[in-house]
Every structure is written in C-alpha cells, then in structure tokens.
C-alpha cells in the first residue's frame, strides 16, 4: 500500500508540473516566433533566423514534456505509437538544439571578430533543412521501425537507444571541428594580413 501511495504521489509531483510548464511556455514561444517572423528588422539577419528556428524547436519539444506529464498522471503510455513518437521528438530536439547552438556560435564568432564567412548563409540553410528533414523522417519512420524511444514510467522519461546515436554524433563532432578549424584559420589569415599592412 505504501509503494502505491508513493507511486501516485510521485506521478502527481512529476505529471502536474510537466503539463503546467507546457501551458506557460507555449504562448511565450509563440510570441517570440511571431515577433521574429513579422518584424521586418529581423528578416535579413542570420542570427534572428537561427533564433526563430530555436523557438520553433523549443515549442515542438514541449510536446514530449506534455505527453510525459500525461503519461505520469495516467500511469499509462496509452499506446506504443504515441509513446515512441513523443520519445523520438524528445531525442530529435536534443540533437537539433545542439546544431542550432553551433550555428549560433559560428555566427556570433564571425560577428565578434569582424569577418564575414562567405559560405555561412549556405551552411545555415543546409543545416536547417537537414534538421527539419531529419525530424520528418524520424516522426514518420520511428513507429514503424519500433525504435526504443518509448516512455519509461519507472525512470520518468523517454528511453533513448544511445547505441544508435553514437555514430551520427561522432560524425557531427568531426564536421563541426572541421568548420571551426576553417573559421579559425580564416581569422588568423586575416589577422596576418592586417599585421603585414
């Protein structure tokens, strides 16, 4: 009896904040998206486009938080399809937000040091396209492939098949390292030109 009382109390303590946080943050994210989309001042800047995509990704990630709250409150995952799809969205968000932070870092690095990366707009567009394309493929294919993204009531969050994520994360690290090396070399070459003149 004591274990079931603790379990139901735990479900309430976790489930209610998960659900409430979604209702608090979703309107805030929509306001940010609206401001960044409507105001012409923000239209041409890569920085603000990255921020807009970050706000959209954050708003979409609230689906996993909301579903986690419902799973906790009901102590059921309803169906494998819902549980796995919500879990895959949670995993996608972690990778997507890292990519967006890297793009934002490259952009801010180039602004701080005052040099223009000629291919920065292309990097941004291709990366954003791949990020949203990966989401579409993941949401469509995950339930059919039966990847283990389901919600775990005993751990209170989604299971992630980490062995499947290791190779893509390694490749992303190598690509990002290569981009940073190019940016740093370009910076040092421009500093060398300034020193000689």
Automatic annotation (TrEMBL):
Keywords from the named record: Membrane, Transmembrane, Transmembrane helix
Domain of life: Eukaryota
Alphabetical list of SUPFAM superfamilies matching this protein: Family A G protein-coupled receptor-like (SSF81321)
Spans traversing the lipid bilayer: 12-38, 91-115, 127-145, 175-195
Protein name: Uncharacterized protein
Species of the source: Steinernema carpocapsae
The organism's taxonomic lineage, starting at the top: Eukaryota, Metazoa, Ecdysozoa, Nematoda, Chromadorea
């Amino acid at each position: 009896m004591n274990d079931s009382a603790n379990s139901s109390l735990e479900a309430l303590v976790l489930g209610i904040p998960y659900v409430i946080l979604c209702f608090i943050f979703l309107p805030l994210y929509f306001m940010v998206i609206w401001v960044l989309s409507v105001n012409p001042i923000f239209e041409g800047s890569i920085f603000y486009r990255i921020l807009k995509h970050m706000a959209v990704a954050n708003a979409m990630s609230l689906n996993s938080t909301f579903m986690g709250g419902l799973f906790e409150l009901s102590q059921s995952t309803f169906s494998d399809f819902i549980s796995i799809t919500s879990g895959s969205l949670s995993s996608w968000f972690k990778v997507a937000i890292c990519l967006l932070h890297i793009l934002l870092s490259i952009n801010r690095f180039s602004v701080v040091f005052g040099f223009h990366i000629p291919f920065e707009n292309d990097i941004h567009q291709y990366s954003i396209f791949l990020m949203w394309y990966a989401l579409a493929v993941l949401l469509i294919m995950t339930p059919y492939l039966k990847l283990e993204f389901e919600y775990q009531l005993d751990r209170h969050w989604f299971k992630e098949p980490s062995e499947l994520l290791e190779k893509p994360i390694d490749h992303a690290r190598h690509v990002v390292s290569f981009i940073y090396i190019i940016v740093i070399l370009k910076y040092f070459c421009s500093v060398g030109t300034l020193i000689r003149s």
